[in-house]
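It is worth pausing here to work through a concrete case rather than discussing structure prediction in the abstract. The textbook approach is simple: state the sequence, then state the predicted structure, then interpret. We follow exactly that order.
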Amino acid sequence: MQLRSGNVPDVVLFYTISDDIYSAYQSGRPGVLENLDQIAARFEGRREPSTEPSTFADLLRRTNSYRLIDLLMSKLTIANPQQEEKAPSKLVTYESMGIDVTTLSDLIAQNYFGNYKIVSALAQEYGFKYFFFLPPLISRGNKPLTPEEQEMKHEMESEAAYYKLFTAAYQTLERESSKYQNLYSLVDIFDRYDSLMYIDESHLTPIGNQLIAERMLTVIQARSSDEK
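Step two, the predicted structure:
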């Protein structure tokens, strides 16, 4: 980072809060890893919590890369109508654990702002600038959704517990963001665009990422000009 030479960089944090929300949806706790139960089972040398024994294919299906490829392939191929459907398994989520969505969303926000305060303290100690950006979400803002995006949003809403937690957490983060000088919400960034920007509820197309990068650069440059 070249701090000793006097070349003090800006530090930009594009906090992927969607990962934190999803892991809390799974475990009922904020600030933990996704698939925490499976990770704990491996460290403790016990069978992972599952109704079926794990195979190599099962392990592949649990990776983020597989999930992304599977999502993209489902959009490019037509499902075989004769393919036998598997019986849906009962998911263990915060809701099935009896945890209140408002309580959990508030804890997620507290964890997020706690990380903000840690970075702020480090910035004050070591003399660097920092910026936090709250990323967009397909169910927030007022973007005119394409048919593909409408389907993505509908799929998100169809898992009620998942949708409720994302909505509650984002509402809390947006409501409290004005208290944090270096936190910028990008939830409305696509409101003027009617073309495809999402590949799922929170991940973006290359054009969407480019617009995000341009907005971030604009914010950083504007702050730098104000402080001169």
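Step three, interpretation. The beta strands are 10-14, 129-134, 183-185. The chain has a mean pLDDT of 81.
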